[in-house]
Amino acid sequence: MIWTAALLVIVGSYADSDDYCYDEPHCDSYSWGDMFPSCYSLIDHHDSPINLDEHMVRNASLGALYLEGFEETQTGHWTLKNDGHSVILQVGSGMAVSGGGLPDVYHTIQLHFHWGGPASNGSEHTVDRRRYPMEMHIVNIKSIHPNLSAALDDPTGLAVLGFFIDVVYADNVHFGHISQKLSSVAYKGQATKVKPFPLMSLLPKHNMSQYYRYYGSLTTPPCSQAVVWTLYEVPIYISWSQLAQFTSQIFSTEEDAEQVTPLQNNFRHIHHILSRVVSASIDAKLLRGAAGRTLWSATSVHLLPVLLLGCFLPGL
After folding, report:
1. Would you kindly state where each structural domain of the chain is located, as residue ranges?
2. In the chain, where do the E strands start and end?
3. How many CB atoms are located within 10 Å of the residue 211 CB?
4. What is the CATH architecture of 2-310?
5. Bridge partners (DSSP) listed for residue 81
6. Which residues are catalytic?
7. Which residues, including other chains, have CB under 8 Å from residue 272's CB and lie 6 or more apart?
8. CA torsion sign, 220 to 236 to 198 to 248?
9. How many Å separate Cα 260 from the centre of its chain?
10. What pTM did the predictor assign?
């Protein structure tokens, strides 16, 4: 797949640019339209991310996707990179997604992350208006397209698999393939090689038939409306220390910058669903009930250390 190798040269996150930022005083995702007109939220736009709630439609034809090569260890090496906006793992060729209502076969090119800060959650999509600590996106390009530019002109040119990330106290040993390399990409522009590992080991593999589907956009400039979104219901679990590596030890500036800036809150604001239909797969739990219990963990988990501390320290 020669075209895949070429794509990795031009695909950082979705756009390699210093002209957008997230949480600096002069700049946030609402202002991206000043530099990228397609990022303006207009009444006829199908923008991402969105809030997921109980207003969705069950689609019995949406079964589990076929994830080719995800169970295998790929050859060669992968590259982990800090592009100043996210941490990106470029995975090379050998993996693809299809089925599950997708209109074509899509080749996997990279995955990246969105997070908040030391005391705030940072998933891009929300569930009943609540955020998870992090969100991971696996980006896949439709096989008929020779490059990213062509894919961005196609309303279904990209298929992105989104996974919420929640926090527990034990390290996720499989996530360690990435977290153990983060110190090598702490600053913008830094990159390091990663030994390939089965990508499925990161995912909630026993719950891959539970997801939600809608049509939307990139969540970074140029905000192209070219994405078939698949958002998985069951999160990935990592430890507090693994989360802290993202929220406190990754920087949006270069190492020799006069003032280094932590990379935090790198998520885009929520957009209206408008006329779109959000579909639930045949096995999804439709949020209410089972998802409500999951949400407690996602939104309250940051309070646990304070509550536990109050058990031992007077006055708390």
Report:
1. 2-310
2. 51-52, 57-58, 66-68, 78-82, 87-90, 96-98, 106-115, 126-127, 134-142, 158-168, 191-194, 211-216, 227-239, 279-280
3. 27
4. Roll (3.10)
5. 88, 191
6. 85
7. 41, 50
8. positive
9. 24
10. 0.85
